[in-house]
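Sequence in, structure out.
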Amino acid sequence: MTTFPSSPFGTEITSDDIVAKMQTFSGWEDRYRQVIQWGKKLPTMPDELKSEQVVVSGCESQVWLVSQNIDGVWHFCADSDARIVRGLIALVMAAYDGKTSEQVQAFDIDGYFEQIGLITHLSPSRGNGLKAIVEQIKNLASS
């Protein structure tokens, strides 16, 4: 089993941290720039983990997502070939990485995205891709 690269999302940078930071911005352009900055902090997925089997369907960009459950706690590694999508993945990882199945299922992702105040500014295809990533995580955590 390949070890996932260490990620600050879900541990050092939590969903509460994301919401607090995003609420300091008044305009969506600043939020967008911050999302791209978080995407730069997302570790690159090792090439050996990238395969057709782990591609998230429903995303316009290439998105890969793998998971491990260690002692009842879920760890995710995800990556994309698009900068903004890497940032959106970071937002999702902050919400779900390092959580139990129960915590993953119970997390109010719609409320989280609403608090961030960015989703209404995403294109429909990006929004659908984001939903596809969340659904894949929830499905993995329910198995």
